[in-house]
Amino acid sequence: MAKPGYGKRSVPGQHARTAHDFAHLPPREAAIAAYLDRLADGTDISVKTLAKQLPYGQCALGTALNRLQRAGHLRRGRERLDSASGGHRWITRSWWSRTARDDDWWAAFTRGDVPEEPPNRPPTRSRAHILLAALGRETPSLSLSAADCAALAPLVGVWFDRGVSEEAVRHALTNGLPTPVHHPAALLRRRLTDKLPPEPPPERPPHRILECAECRVPGPPEALPGGVCNSCRDGYAPARPGALLPASEIHARANQIRAALSLKREEGTPV
Predict the structure, then answer these.
(1) What's residue 244's pLDDT?
(2) Neighbours of 39 (CB within 10 A)
(3) How much is the pLDDT for 143?
């Protein structure tokens, strides 16, 4: 696993996994893509780490990852994380999509505009329906019919949408019950309505920057079609910028310059 906050990050709205997800890729890239797809979020998927796990060298892996990026499965960049105190820091990200995405989709994802698409799965009972059906086994006075569960499930779903856990919903529905309970469905409907918690504050839109797969120069998605900048695509890769100096070193250097200027003024030397 990578350091907290780094590593693989799966994007929303991917299709259900099948045996043919990467059939459009060359054999090597398809094998690497299948391996990456099964890794948990947060796993280190840097070239150096993958070379220790897969039968390919770092150069081959770097080429393969760039091809996966051009195929729409991968984007690399940085994302700003804001703290409660008002500060922020930038985290290196590697975003992964089993479903190949075009440049427009990745541009929308960078802005935080991509809606979550439900994967193609056979219909099953919802979490809300399962919770309601289980109430009768835990609290016999709250036994519900299948029709009752289907009617009340959307109300429970609203609680889940507002970030309430299953345990908290169960406690709100079962705590302090009257004796006897004459109409369990009516009582639960009343509790689900009257005790509904407020909506959580809206989430801030993400701050994301994509980087060129070749030279790692950051830029807007429109300037990185296929995840590669125009200079690298034309064979003229710009020099990589040097690492930024720490803030403490910058302040120390600025103080040295100011002290030198003050000394020259005291000596009457032209600045």
Answers:
(1) 55
(2) 17
(3) 93
Q: Cα 116 to the chain's mean position, in Å?
A: 12
- What CA–CA distance (Å, rounded) separates 46 from 21? 22
Asked if 71 contacts 30 with a C-beta cutoff of 8 angstroms, the reply is no
Q: Show the tokens assigned to 159.
A: 């609680």
Closest CA to 96 of 42, 25, 23: 42
CA distance 110 to 112: 5
- Which residue is it, tokens 């639960």? 188
**Mean pLDDT of successive 10-residue stretches along the chain, which has 271 residues:** 75 87 93 95 92 94 94 91 79 91 91 66 75 92 93 93 92 93 94 92 81 86 87 69 60 73 64 50
Domain ranges of the chain: 8-112+205-233, 127-194, 245-271
CA angle (189, 193, 195) in 5-degree steps: 115
DSSP string for 53-111: HSSS-HHHHHHHHHHHHHTTSEEEEEEEEE-TTS-EEEEEEEEE-SS---HHHHHHHHH
Report the pLDDT value the prediction gives residue 240, as an integer from 0 to 100.
52
Q: Which residue has the tokens 């996994």?
A: 17
Contact 157, 130 (CB under 8 A): no
Q: Are strands 88-96 and 8-10 parallel, antiparallel or unpaired?
A: parallel
Q: How many CB atoms lie within 10 A of CB 36?
A: 22
Query: Residue 176: its pLDDT value, please?
Result: 92
180 prior amide bond cis, ω within 30: yes
Burial class (CB in 10 A: 0-12, 13-18, 19+), 210: buried
Q: How many CA atoms lie within 13 A of 59 on its CB side?
A: 0
In the predicted model, what is the mean pLDDT of the chain? Answer: 85
Interior CA angle at 168 toward 163 and 169, to 5°?
85
